[in-house]
Each structure stands twice: as C-alpha cells, then as structure tokens.
Amino acid sequence: MSTVTRAEYCVVACAEAWRGDGEVLAAPMGTVPRIGAQLARLTFAPDLLLTDGEAMLLGAEPGVVEGWLPYRQHLSLVSGGKRHVMMGASQLDRHGNQNISCVGDWKRPRRQLLGVRGAPVNTLNNPTSYWVPRHSPRVFVERVDMVCGVGYDRAAAAGPSATRYHRIPCVVTDLAVLDFATPDRTMRVRSLHPGVTAQRVREATGFALDIADDVPYTREPTGAELRLIREVIDPEGLREREVPA
To answer: Please, which residues have CB within 8 angstroms of residue 93's CB and are 6 or more apart in sequence?
Structure first.
C-alpha cells in the first residue's frame, strides 16, 4: 500500500468514534465521517445502522439500500440515546459547547451561518461527536458566540434531565483526535495524527489545551482498511478534497 494520507488517518479516527456502540443509528455529517462510518460497519462494527439522513437504511457499501426508516421511528431512536451523530462545528469551546448559528452577537451577528437546527436535541438526546476539517483558533474558541450544541458544563448545570443521554465521545480534526476524558470534563488531546506536533495543535487552538507529554499518535489503518477506503467506499478520492494532503 502507498503512504497513508492525512485524510485516511482522519477516516480511521472517525470510524473509531463508533467502536463499541453496538446496534445504534450512525449519523455521519460530512464526507470523511461518512466514509468512517462505512468503514466501521464493514470491519469492527457490523451492527451499526447507517442512514441517508431521511428515510433509508443504507448498506455499508455505496449505493446499497437495506431498509426503510419511518420518520417516527427515526425520532424515537434520536430521543432515546440510540443514535450517535457526528456533526460539524463553526465554533467549539473547551467544554464542548458548539456553535453553527452565527458569528458575533446573535442580536446583530457579523455573519449568519446555518442556524441552531437540531443541535440541542442531538446533544441532549444522543451521543454527539464532532468533525472539524480545519483545526484553527477561529473554530476552537474560548467562548462560543451562541450555544447550539450543549457542552458538558451546561448539561451538568441543567441537571439529570439534560445529562441522561448527553455524551461527547470525541472531536476529530485534520490535526488530532480530542475528547473530554478529564476530571473537569474539559477538552484534551487523545491522539495526534502522524506528522503533527503538540505545538502545532496548541497554536491552532484558541484556549489552553491539555496535551500529555506521552500523547500517542492516531492509529495506522490496516492494509485491509486502506483497501476498503480506496477501492470500495471512496474510489473517487473525495476524502482528499475535504482534507488535502
């Protein structure tokens, strides 16, 4: 196999987000997360349910439809912790609060984005991970301009009704994998992608970030995984457009 690209490390890191989830609805948003979910389904997570986001259950290989998912059943899965979504983020803070709505004061924003959409429901009702294809201080900020996805601090303040299903398993970026496995549930680096230094990640983050001296590198994809990524799931190489070499 040829040299593993940064995009392929990101695919593997996204796939790992669903490891151990069992039979849940995987809802990947973005090219790399979609490829990652398909890779997980084809390898170590065969019980995952993949969806087109509307009404169909998809097979692990592109173009295969396995079943129909009525909207009411979809909502039942969403509201009962039986879905693991990987969303994007325009801003994220150290507690995992996410913003996809606006930049600046919401009363008079400098830039209008997607809107709140389903982020509050996602984060309070089922595990939510994040995919950030460009790790930068513009995304990783000290305080988000508007809370759309709920972080650990706000969920804890709201009490048991908010924390029952709330969980942020990981944040995958083009530089690293991050999580909240700290005593105060603030963000830390779980692994660096090969070729990335801790200093580079610190410089690309707008707040002090916990990075252990012995932080590992993101795991290598196996030969079988690379074949699936390159020949079965994404033969057109769309992953390289989202995370250029």
So the answer is: 140, 141, 142, 143, 144, 151, 207
